[in-house]
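Notes to self, Dihydroorotate dehydrogenase (quinone), mitochondrial:
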Amino acid sequence: MIPLQATRRLSTRFLAHPSVSFKRCFSQKTSSTTLQSKILPLPSSTFILVVALGLGAYSLDARSAANEYIWCPLIRFFTDAEEGHKLGINFLKSGVYPRLFSDVDDPVLKVNVFGKTLSNPVGMAAGFDKHGEVIDPLFNLGFGYVEIGSITPLPQPGNPLPRFFRLSQDEAVINRYGFNSVGHLQVLTDLKRRFTKLHVQNPNANSNSFRDEKMLAINLGKNKTGDEVDDYIKGVQNFGPYADALVINVSSPNTPGLRDLQNEAKLTNLLTKVVAERNNLEGELIDSTRKPPILVKVAPDLTEPEIKSIAQSAKDAKIDGIILSNTTIQRPVDQLITKGSIVQETGGLSGKPLKPISLKAFRILRKYTKDSDLVLVGCGGISNGKDAIEFAKAGATYIELYTAFAYKGPGLARKIKDEITDELKREGKTWMEIVGSDDK
Ligand SMILES: Cc1cc2nc3c(=O)[nH]c(=O)nc-3n(C[C@H](O)[C@H](O)[C@H](O)COP(=O)(O)O)c2cc1C
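result:
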């Protein structure tokens, strides 16, 4: 409480000499100390220290609103989309990023999946950490599941620049990266180094995340001119031992012909071979009782018969799950605030405008898979707890996001977890109890 007399004295001095009073009040040591001691019970140095520590701690906390409203917009102002992406990776890689000072997941968030438990259902989707450079920082930011990739067998540069565009007013982006990848060898070398280091610290770990109740997934792509089966088989052989789940990406719109692999005959053939290869994995698997589950990642731009045939391929090949969805080639122009030629850039659109498209396709997929054990993963335009819950009720065992993280910053996973927890408690349910509850 500021004593009334001191406030009056202060305002009288300001009013009397507005041009010089600020200096008088605050630059003269004696008078400022006197004022300080009168209006606050702390000595000035302690006061400044407390304020500085408070502000410091606040801006170092990933949940700070400064990330969403100051730092992310500043990065967007000074960089183009690809530079901003690289900057984000570099901050995380060098350890210069805000932390979550407490990140305990409420038990209502627990997910039972693939015979394991995740402490929360919020995942980072493929494409943010394409080369597996920031796995641990992403877990530190609260994600329960981190998917790296897509990784191609051989290094390839991807499409020419520019290839990544922001539609900021829509909290969306369009990308046509085209599987820029450092290739299997480089990622494998880094993963092995990480594995060796963490295995020494935690020899009893039962997950490649080396975290309790978290999973590391590896997303496999194919080279532009690579073989449409062998490239994925190589991925299973190389990354199987380091993954808690392997994702077969047949839905990027930026690799010519890739989406054709979603055709029923091709997909069944590919997935059957992938599963056979996974079953052959031997050696030092982190969990000797279990081989990594196989998921296929599909597009949102599919007709009902196409979705039905994908569900059939997944069942026939006996894979473990389906991620829906990748980016869309549609441009829902009526719903976009952004206008002009940028909207028509070639590539995949992601972020908020994708959600109705992906959720609609997701509901159809659920219709054709609910008679099976296939795990469905919801992805596409998820940016808050409400979106996540919508996908869960539609049948998603867990969810993934990318674009919203780019707009909202490092506190997003924690924020979404808090929103989901609040809603679950309001409904008196757990996450697992709401999965697929729209069916009932
Ligand atoms: C810049 C960018 C790169 C992406 N790269 C990949 C990729 O390499 N492999 C993949 O399976 N998905 C990739 N995706 C798709 C995302 O994983 C996700 O499926 C899609 O963006 C929809 O989710 P979102 O709206 O939360 O971003 C990429 C997305 C973006 C925005």
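- DSSP finds 16 helices and 13 strands in the chain.
- Residues 104 and 142 are 9 Å apart (CA to CA).
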